[in-house]
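Researcher: We are triaging several targets before committing to wet-lab work. For this one, the compound of interest is adenosine-5'-diphosphate. I'm pasting the protein sequence and the ligand SMILES. What I need is the predicted three-dimensional arrangement of the protein with the ligand bound, expressed as structure tokens, so it can go straight into our comparison scripts without reformatting.
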Amino acid sequence: MAYIELRNVSKSFGTGKDKTEVLSNINLTIEEGEFVAIVGFTGSGKTTLINLISGLLMPDEGQVLFKGEPVTGPSHERGVIFQNYSLLPWLNVRNNVGMAVKEAFKKMSKKDRNKRVEDYVEMVNLSPAIGKLPKELSGGMRQRVSVTRALSMSPDVILMDEPLSALDALTRGNLQQEILKIWNKDKKTALLITNDVDEGILMADRIIPLKPGPKATLGPEYKINLERPRDKTALNSNDEYKRLRNSIIEYLIQIGEQRSSKKETTYTLPEIKPQIKSTPFRRLSFS
Amino acid sequence: MKDKSINILNFIGLGFFEPAIRLASGEETKKNLVALFKKIVLPILSVGLFLLLWSAGSSHLYNIEKEFRIEKAFNERGEAAARLERSCIDSGSKDCQITTLPSPSQVWVAYKSLLADHASISAKKDAFAEKVAATNVKRAEQGLDAITYTGRPSFVDQIFTSLKTVFAGFLLALFIAVPIGIMLGLSESLRSSVNWLIQILKPVSPVVWLLLVSMIVNTLGKNSDGDSSFTISFISVGLCAMWATLVNTSMGVSSVDKDYINVAKVLQLNIGQKVFKIILPSSFPLIFTGLRITLSVAWMVLIAIELLAQSPGLGSFVWEEFQNGANDSNSKIIVAMFVIGIIGFLLDRIMLTIQKFVTFTEET
Ligand SMILES: Nc1ncnc2c1ncn2[C@@H]1O[C@H](COP(=O)(O)OP(=O)(O)O)[C@@H](O)[C@H]1O
Ligand SMILES: [Mg+2]
């Protein structure tokens, strides 16, 4: 039985003339312990897709199943790392994480909860900043808090919505490794939304492109049969890696061109900051 | 130490002293001299210019009034009377004092006389309290009310009465507007159903609120004796001033960032937790801005309301002086004007400081 399953899922926003069908006929299955990455252009509906799985949104048509049961709303079993951190600005790191721990482990004693918060903050090397407010943290640190908050609830699945898109290349690389390390520890099922093909290849077992909307559907999947742990620099000279990378990018360029030839679509500039080129290849980022 | 005191000054809104401190510690002399000039010297100059214009204006008005009187005496009673009038005015005698816009120095004199008056009244009060202390103890044993001083209040007493009224009105506004604002913010249908009512009531003048409140309070208070003017004035102040808080609270609550709402959903907070842990904290900056406006409106309408309601305070002080028409009445009114302005400014500063203390800022 599939762990997460989307069956013919469609989702639109608005009514009447303003109605836009964002996602159309999405089919996706994720097995337990799998790490799946989805790449796609800005506005194609990636956040909508992850919200459907987390239960923040309900599909108009089709079904979202989690462990065989229809998803009816958010649940602690599915942790979410939001696109823009979504930390509560009036709470410090301890309390942002603490709030999640308190909700997920209602019966736990206060002392144990505190310990759990501290352990998880330690895990992402943020102990010195535990008393700080989000505004006092750098982007990378905020994202670490966001990751910690999601993981501290001990979810069965971790849903990540472009968690690293807003970070500079160096911080991004570090956090990729950290997330992988944590994932590797108990092999939780993970869904990663990303705008970076390299990131997807480095982290995931499978990459699935999301075609540009409206009426976005999933493209063909690419299995990543590279051995873990994967090393970024070593990968650059790996033939399988090069082949995968090229075919995914080619596919994305092709559907990108299809999109630009469609009249009604609008262009959106990628919402990413300039990045240091961390690989000798031409680096293509999609968002 | 230096940076700490600068931070404190900035925090309580006295940041304009910053260049003076930096200068004193010999830091970037030239840059700080310019800043000092801009932030301290120029404001002082402008105050000086204001005083200059004021005293020129008042002496001009004085002359107009004076010439008018002499002319009048001449036309009515002849040249000798006119000469007499002129010398009487020039001698500064009380019989033919000219009342017009007082000069800065007259106002200063009036200010000092008000302080002296306060000192003598407090002395009287203390003496009275001492005299009746023994009697009051006895009365208390017999279950009677204590005898209190009932003489004329001093100017400083009036200030405190006004502050008390404005504070009571502000608290009333707070306890009405914030809960209602939260409810309106949470429910869109509630919001749209009372929207018209709010839009219509919001611009109603303080005077009308006062009349309305006194209609109600006078009827309700028929059986109870005692002075209802304080009740009437603080309720009116509260009702006039609460709208900013009401509107801001409902706006803040209804426009909470969708991301935070999503966090609440993912954490599966219940409705109470959602309100107290997510919605209220995130709308706090807006609520507080509303409260600040409420306090300054309350202080502004208070004077008018006290004046009309005949309840003790700065407003009735101004009104009594205006009717009294003594030599220095006009000067005292101007003193009251400055006191009202300065207190209003201080109240706003206090609110600003509290606001900085209790609300978060999203970015640095
Ligand atoms: N709540 C909403 N109401 C109306 N339109 C929405 C809403 N959420 C998303 N959309 C629209 O759906 C499309 C996909 O959005 P989103 O899923 O956020 O894209 P992505 O995350 O891939 O950038 C966009 O065109 C966006 O304008
Ligand atoms: Mg998105």
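Researcher: Any quick observations?
Model: Helices of chain A lie at 46-54, 93-104, 110-123, 139-152, 169-186, 197-203, 232-235, 239-261.
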